[in-house]
Amino acid sequence: MRASVGDRLLVHGRIVGQHDRTAEVIEVLGEDGGPPYRVRFEDGHETIMSPGPDTIVRPSPVTSEG
After folding, report:
1. Contacts (Cβ under 8 Å, ≥6 apart) of 46
2. The model's pTM
Protein backbone atom coordinates (compact mmCIF):
# COMPACT_ATOMS: atom_id res chain seq x y z
CA MET A 1 0.00 0.00 0.00
CA ARG A 2 1.22 3.47 -0.89
CA ALA A 3 -0.32 6.81 0.06
CA SER A 4 0.58 10.50 0.07
CA VAL A 5 -0.40 13.41 2.28
CA GLY A 6 -3.92 14.46 1.31
CA ASP A 7 -5.01 10.99 0.18
CA ARG A 8 -8.08 9.48 1.81
CA LEU A 9 -8.22 6.03 3.36
CA LEU A 10 -11.58 4.26 3.19
CA VAL A 11 -11.67 1.76 6.06
CA HIS A 12 -14.44 -0.80 5.63
CA GLY A 13 -16.38 -1.90 8.71
CA ARG A 14 -15.27 -5.32 9.94
CA ILE A 15 -18.47 -6.44 11.62
CA VAL A 16 -22.16 -6.27 10.77
CA GLY A 17 -23.54 -2.82 11.60
CA GLN A 18 -20.14 -1.12 11.67
CA HIS A 19 -19.99 1.69 9.14
CA ASP A 20 -17.14 2.46 6.78
CA ARG A 21 -14.89 5.30 7.95
CA THR A 22 -12.83 7.80 5.98
CA ALA A 23 -9.55 9.27 7.16
CA GLU A 24 -7.25 11.83 5.55
CA VAL A 25 -3.53 11.08 5.48
CA ILE A 26 -1.83 14.01 7.21
CA GLU A 27 1.66 12.51 7.48
CA VAL A 28 3.44 9.53 5.91
CA LEU A 29 5.76 7.92 8.45
CA GLY A 30 6.96 4.96 6.37
CA GLU A 31 9.44 4.86 3.52
CA ASP A 32 8.39 5.53 -0.08
CA GLY A 33 4.75 6.25 0.79
CA GLY A 34 4.32 3.08 2.84
CA PRO A 35 2.67 2.76 6.26
CA PRO A 36 2.40 3.76 8.98
CA TYR A 37 0.38 6.92 8.42
CA ARG A 38 -0.81 9.68 10.73
CA VAL A 39 -4.48 10.14 9.80
CA ARG A 40 -7.41 12.36 10.76
CA PHE A 41 -10.89 10.85 10.76
CA GLU A 42 -14.05 12.79 9.89
CA ASP A 43 -14.82 13.37 13.59
CA GLY A 44 -11.41 15.05 14.10
CA HIS A 45 -9.79 12.07 15.86
CA GLU A 46 -6.14 11.62 14.88
CA THR A 47 -4.15 8.41 15.14
CA ILE A 48 -1.24 6.51 13.62
CA MET A 49 -2.29 3.46 11.64
CA SER A 50 -0.94 0.72 9.42
CA PRO A 51 -3.97 -0.10 7.28
CA GLY A 52 -5.01 -3.69 6.66
CA PRO A 53 -6.56 -5.38 3.63
CA ASP A 54 -9.95 -3.84 4.46
CA THR A 55 -8.65 -0.35 3.55
CA ILE A 56 -8.66 1.38 0.16
CA VAL A 57 -6.48 4.38 -0.75
CA ARG A 58 -8.31 7.12 -2.63
CA PRO A 59 -5.77 9.54 -4.11
CA SER A 60 -6.38 13.22 -3.48
CA PRO A 61 -7.72 15.03 -6.53
CA VAL A 62 -5.02 16.83 -8.46
CA THR A 63 -5.99 20.07 -10.13
CA SER A 64 -4.28 20.77 -13.39
CA GLU A 65 -3.39 24.24 -14.50
CA GLY A 66 -3.02 25.14 -18.03
Report:
1. 26, 38, 39, 40
2. 0.82
